[in-house]
Amino acid sequence: MSHILLNLIITFTLVNPQVCPEQEWDDEVRASHRPLPHVLVILVTRPPRVHLMLAGSCWTRNTPESWTSVKVGAVVGHVSCASSSGCPAGGGTCGGDCTSSRPRDGSSSSSSPPRPTSSTPPAVNLPRSIHRFMVYFVKSLMRTRPEVLYRCPTLSSSGERMRKYIDHATISAGGGNRVRMKIDPKVLLFVETTFSKLGRDLAELLVHNRMKYKVEVSGKSLPVLRNGEKGRFSTILFENYTKYLSLDEWNRNILDKYCAEFDIGIVGFMPSRDETFVGAELRNTAASLLIDTNVRIKDAYLNPSSSVLRLTRAGDIVRGPLPNEPSDLWTVFYPNHTTVQNEPQKGKFVVVVVVAGVQCVLAYPLGYHGRLRSTRRGNGKGNEDPSGHGGNKSWLNLRQCAYVAGETIRIDVKDKGEADGIRRVIFGAGLKFWLHRLLLLDAISYSSRGRLSVSLKRYILIDIDDIFVGERGTRLKKSDVEAILTAQEGLRRLVPGFKFNLGFSAKYFHFGDDEENAGDDLILENSDKFMWFGHMWNHIQPHLYSNLTQLMLDMMKNKDFAKEHGIPTDFGYSVSPHHSGVYPVHDLLFDAWKKVWNVKVTSTEEYPHLRPARLRRGFIHRGIMINVFMTHMSNYGNDRLGLYTFESVIKYVQCWTNLQMVTLPPVLLAEKYFKMHPDEGDPIWGNPCDDPRHRKIWSSNKTCDSLPQFLVIGPQKTGTTALYTFLTMHPAISSNKPSPETFEEVQFFNGKNYLRGLDWYLKFFASEEVLPTTNVTTSFAHASSSFASDDDANAHHNAVPTLPPFHEEPPPHTKRILFEKSATYFDNELVPKRAHALLPRAKLVTILISPAKRAHSWYQHMRAHNDSVALNYTFYEVLTASVGSPKVLRDLRNRCLNPGRYAQNLERWLSYFPPQQLLILDGEELRDDPVAVMYRLQRFLQIQPLFDYSTKLRYDRSKGFYCQVISQNRNKCLGRSKGRHYPPMDDRSEKYLQSYYKSHNSALEKLLRRLDHSIPPWLREDLIE
Predict the structure, then answer these.
(1) Are 491 and 549 contained in the same domain?
(2) What is the distance, to the nearest Å, from the Cα of residue 605 to the centroid of all Cα atoms in its chain?
(3) Is residue 767 marked as binding?
(4) Strand runs labelled E in 121-222
(5) Any binding-site annotation on 734?
(6) 979 labelled as ligand-binding?
(7) Active site residues per annotation
(8) Domain, as residue range, for 692
(9) Mean pLDDT, 10 residues at a time, the chain of 1025 residues
(10) In total, how many domains does the chain have?
(11) Peptide bond into 608 cis (omega under 30)
(12) Do 943 and 1013 belong together in one domain?
């Protein structure tokens, strides 16, 4: 019944429950089987109908024995008996409702309500009075707030708790105080393959908790573990712990030595196995362990005295079978040699016993199913069983255990590191068991000695948006407002100072019936009990506005309403309907917010995307903090589930964790967030057209066709301006409009311009024009196929190849190809990531010349522009500037040298863009033979038909390079600043640069060979010298 929207299911106990007949069940099921009462299930659907289903009293294996279904006010109503198993032998009746063992329409049995068909018997309509009563009854039930039934057994009746947890930074393996070594807070994650599920789950969990990590595939050589005296990793995490145990002796010794020296631990997960082991020895462990595999277990609770627990709290019992992938089978552990030492019991569930350096976190679960072991384990001293089950057992200081046949077994263990100084935490199953996700964070904190610990303070803010919005019949009544106030008081007991944050659209005030309008009035009477924020007056999405004045007028109507009704206006926070205009950014919204409300913070779930949620972040744009803390709850009067959910979740969190829940007003909360995550202040602009949700909330006046299809990324002084000029000669290619500050270069991705936003960037590109045709494809998937041809797109040509026919003016109806040239992009560390986020399919063009010549050219360029530093220092003095030199001198040295580290800079680009989207041009060939280079560039851009540059470019002897042909006797060349003849480089500087770039040029050669790119002549010469 996919067309039915299920709103509510309510059960009733009816009189005279039916006694179930005896069936052939196993002893366990028979012992727990009891007759169930009749159950009346009411389904409310849209379109508005009420479905009544009377289930039979006997349920077996989650299947109702009979259904009685009546559709009220609809076409069909009928009674059926779905199965004869619930009736006496030979037919009989099922709850007294039928005499046949099959439904009257002859359909097969089903555990769900029968769907009406054309063969359904005639309708059985209930009287109108009963129908009205049922509708009223259901609506009343929907307005009844469900009570939070969950009660944590380790919390007091008032919900108070004692937060007792271990500071892992104070724990040292083997005891004693050790000097904390310098080490990066980073996880080294070993996975079985790059596609393994548990490995991906572990990586996602680390990302969700903002932990840095490096992934390595097990079985390969170990990565570099240290940088000099500093360690690179704070904990080692194995998706498959047996991969650690099976390391060859050399790598195992290196890893263990690193862990012991830097006092860090190892965390691992035991994999599921096809074969079953009983009492098998887990070899290569400092603390000798035996294991059983393929064990099913159930019911667990935590040992509050464990030294591993920090985030996780010993709260309640986890009832039922404990899950694992793929078949809910676990690995359990027990010691090979046991030394038992009892300690006093501390609390209801705690047993603390130390055994041969093995300590566990979870105390014995209460039940176990699966294969029983044939041998007894333990020392047989007959310690008292604190679970009350009796029997002789050997109790350990347990991490997680299972109780079976009078003995305890472990399903996760912790090695305290007393044998070799390395703490190890081993999980008997993966992350499908939800408690393991919390325990893993504690295990990482424990093994890293607190270097990788999540904060125990959590901030919460709950917005109730659209407080006056809703169709008549769905709006808040007085009883709904009273329920909100009651729920708020309950939450204040759990989170001190908590207040709901109400968002209002004033246009819809008093738009309901009399009861609903009274609810609006009651909200305003209690306005001082809530926090408030302004929504859009008419609830229109701001990205639909193209006029700032109109947008501000609508916001002022909301502000005037607030002043008139005593709602505060200085909250500094606002939310846009459906987050429209926040991200992707609509600058008019930000302008209006600042001028009308003085907004300092807003919320969105769309940055960078709605899903996956673990990647959502905040950013700051035009002085407004955009955060992700908003939790949205519907205000509709017929839905009390939100109030119930929040109280239940908070109680559950307080039961199972040591988290402290805190609330703050939005502005303070945003300031706290960016203080915790200062690296998130600068945004990363994504392409709105790559996300269907973003396209819906992006202005129709904007288009992704205004974004460039390729970038000329530099570096400087390699011929990028000449290439720019040649490209603008092409009839199907257009560049950005010039910038008043940086001329032909926008320099968007690498400086303060990036913070101005995407709207600012789009203004530099002309609106789409209809041009003569060129079939241009910018997808690298298409580009890669063309590179397989005989003439490789990156191949070096010493002469003009045989060219196909050229066309100066192509046929009609095509889009112009847009590009941007900014030579400073090449060596900037931030640009590749930013460019890929906005233009993931863009092609990249770079030009390389001898790095030594490039460095000298840049120095002479700065002298020609009267740079004081370049004028006051020789080139050699610039090159040899040291740490103690003036900053301006060091800055000039960096601009001379850093762009010439070609391999390093290209690798950064290739970490975001595939090689098929990168074209490397030889700057000397561009100078000497631009026609061949432009032919190859058109091939790379897949422009058809080709434009004939041989008739548009001519060598100019006075300039010493090619210029644009204007007429038979006239050329148009670049300005006086281009083609200057600089004095030659001095010998000392030349030798210094040869030495400095030697390793960088070697790395470039290797990179070009890897890319199947020919080696340019200047690189061969530099390598020989």
Answers:
(1) yes
(2) 11
(3) no
(4) 186-191, 212-217
(5) no
(6) yes
(7) 717
(8) 462-696
(9) 30 31 36 34 36 34 32 29 33 34 37 39 51 58 62 69 71 52 93 94 96 92 92 97 92 94 93 84 70 83 82 86 87 62 28 25 32 31 31 30 35 61 88 93 94 93 88 88 92 94 95 94 97 94 96 97 96 94 96 97 92 91 85 59 85 92 94 93 95 93 91 96 94 92 92 94 73 40 32 35 44 73 96 97 98 96 94 97 95 97 97 97 95 96 92 84 85 69 91 96 97 96 88
(10) 3
(11) yes
(12) yes
